[in-house]
Amino acid sequence: MLDSLTVLIKDNKITQVAKEISFPNEYNIIDGTGQYLIPGLVDTHAHLHRSKNDLLLYLANGVTHIANNNSESDNLILKWRKEANEGALSPKIYIAAGGMSSKKGLIQRIKTLFGDAIKYNTPTQARRAVRKFKSQGYDAIKSYNPNTEVHFALTDEAEKQGIPVIGHLPPSVGLEDFYNSGQSQLAHVEEITKSTIKEFGGMWSDNSEEYLKYLKTNADQIAIKLKEKNIVVSSTLWIIESIPKQNFDIDNFLKTIELEYQNPGQIEGSQLAKGWLPGNNSYENMAIKNSAEQIKNHKLFWKTYVHAMHIMIKALIKNGVTVTAGTDSNGPGVVAGFSLLDELESLNRCGLTESQVLYAATVAPAQWMQSNAGKVEIGRRADLILLTKNPLEDIKNTRTINAVITNGKYLDRITLDKILLSIRLANNNSRKINIDKFLN
Fold it and tell me: Containing domain of residue 318, as a range?
């Protein structure tokens, strides 16, 4: 960390970084004495839906760049990205088209109409889709659950078109074929643990220790192969840690998150979509109505699963794999913006140093997305956060946001608080279900 520097910003770019700078009087001076300036944070696994307020929630939490991992049938997110590029108040948006999957049948076609993964069942369809999405301006193609032929058609055509393939590890492909598939990013560390459980033969409560030994034995070799192929991995650790809590203690879990800022439509759900509240939460385990033995076994499964995530993340970092901070925002319990700060703390508890965590949320994702941000240096996009406490001493200090600079726009603490208040009031005005019992 460098001490007592002045940063000069002009035309949304950092133009000077030095101890002594002379500048004209027309510059606005922001006194950061005793504070800490870091690059804006990046969430590399976000899900924008139809609540534009999410864009403001990201900024209010210092997240100045997001990778959106789903597209909308009406290209809504492309429209938001265009507005952001033209100066609208928003984080910079990287958009993946998809997710791309393979499944036939009427029910699946109906699900696709309501936002489920887009289905392509033949290599020809997949190649045509890659060319279409490339022409529409998407930044990447998201692989979700295609069959093997479709997946390799996606990656082959994407390479020809010069657009990366990111996303899941399709169960039909498996780890060994995945390394050579041409996909350049995994959207979850969890994709690795799911695959290793499958290769192990399945994990249950009575063989959990054996599975963990198996993973510890193989984790380094998996990481080495990912590193050799330059495959980037998004973390999404906090959401996995939250699932056991949502499984068995949903009421108390909801009291620990910033529920009042989440779009009410998503919280409440509908007849066609699960929400976040008790009785309609997709992670809530109805096994609480079953035997004590079933509950015990299920809790042990999730404890093992979370432990496996920690083992794998440590192996990735140890072996130099690029890990980027991501949250799976707007999944149950994962509030846009706030959840990235939760993710940073989860990564720190998992064993990453404060410096490694900040790297995973700034430099590494900017490099992955080929974005001119991620560092406080001359020529970079002016995406910055001013903190009142040192994040290298405690990663929780990333929450001490005094101001955010996004694409050169300065948002002080008063402005950020007004943004948060306006979102909270708007949500309250459109709420159909009272959530007061979940608010502290």
Answer: 6-69+187-438
